[in-house]
Model the fold of this input.
Amino acid sequence: MAELFAQVRHALSQAGFEVVGQVDRLTPGLRVSETRAGVLVAWATSDGFTALAADQPGGDCRDGMRVAVRAAVSGLMTSLGYTVIGTLNGDIIVLVKGGDGG
Done:
C-alpha cells in the first residue's frame, strides 16, 4: 500500500494539486492517507475559505466546490488507470490498480 500511497501523492502533486500532510490540520489542500481499502484523498479548506463560502448570496458554496474537486481528482486518477470510489462524506478512495482493495 505504501507504493500506491506514493503514486497517488505524486500524481496529484504533478497535476498541480496542493498535497498536505495527513496530520497537518491547518494547511488547506488535499490530505492523502492510507486506509484498508486503498488511499483516501480528502479535501480540506482554510478557515478563510469556509467563512467566505458561507457568506455567499444564495448559500454556502462549499458543496459545489467539493464536487468540483472530487470530479477533478477522480478524473485524474481514473485516467491513470486507477479505480476510485466515493465515501459518504464526499472524499474518494483510490484502489490498487486491477484490484478491489481487499
Summary: The first strand starts at residue 19 and ends at 20. The mean pLDDT is 81.
